[in-house]
From TrEMBL:
Domain of life: Bacteria
Name listed for the protein in its UniProt record: DUF4190 domain-containing protein
Disordered: region residues: 1-82
Ranges of Pro residues composition bias in the record: 1-12
Entry's transmembrane regions: 111-135, 141-166, 178-208
Biased composition (Polar residues): 30-46
Taxonomic classification: Bacteria, Bacillati, Actinomycetota, Actinomycetes, Micromonosporales
Keyword list, A-Z: Membrane, Transmembrane, Transmembrane helix
Bias (Low complexity): 59-80
């Protein structure tokens, strides 16, 4: 038996600038035909074909590098702190370095604020003493009710005077680290005024009720 060569296919002429399609020969009988090769589209002349981008994987436990900040955005990290000027600088012996001592921020005195609250409360309660003392002088109960409020006003006035004096002393000993000397003085004055008003109102209420 003689083997005959299969006829060669005749392809039409291809215009200039185009790629000629690949020729596929028929496979002999009894053999499995291989799949045709895939042909990617050719890039235009003068341009490089695109390179496929595959996702980048990182090993376990390794963090990917952070992307640089965009233009106009602050970089991540600790922000600088503006410290106040040091009060004094102590030179460390034997070294060219020094220890800067920063001043503590000033705070308001709580004792002075308490003195002002007690003093204002004493003045307000002393006004109530006068109101009840004058309103109940004709019925005879003015002295009793005014006396109850007078005790409260006197206690608040004494507390305002004492706390005001303690606040002034505390601020003086703090050497400028505490503020509120004016508040302490105002509390001391209000406490003294409330104490005097309450005492005079009580005496007046008793005298009017008895008369």
């Amino acid at each position: 038996m003689t083997y005959q060569q299969p006829p060669v296919p005749q392809w039409p002429s291809v215009p200039s600038g185009e790629q000629q399609p690949a020729q596929h020969w028929p496979a002999p009988s009894g053999e499995q035909q291989q799949p045709a090769q895939q042909h990617w589209p050719s890039a235009p002349s003068g341009q490089q074909p695109p390179v496929p981008q595959w996702p980048v994987t990182h090993p376990a436990g390794v963090q990917p590098p952070a992307a640089p900040p965009a233009a106009g955005q602050p970089a991540a990290g600790p922000r600088p702190v503006n410290y106040p000027p040091p009060v004094r600088v102590e030179i460390v012996p034997g070294t060219p370095y020094g220890l800067a001592v920063l001043g503590a921020p000033k705070t308001a005195s709580g004792v002075a604020a308490s003195a002002l609250v007690a003093g204002v409360g004493s003045v307000l309660v002393s006004l109530v003493v006068w109101c009840f003392g004058l309103a109940g002088s004709q019925q005879g109960w003015g002295g009793l009710v005014a006396g109850a409020f007078a005790v409260l006003s006197i206690l608040l006035g004494a507390a305002g005077v004492l706390l005001g004096w303690l606040g002034i002393r505390q601020i003086r000993l703090a050497a400028g680290n505490l503020t509120g000397r004016g508040v302490a003085i105002a509390g001391l004055v209000c406490g003294a005024v409330g104490l005097v008003l309450a005492a005079i109102g009580l005496i007046t209420a008793i005298a009017l009720s008895a008369g």
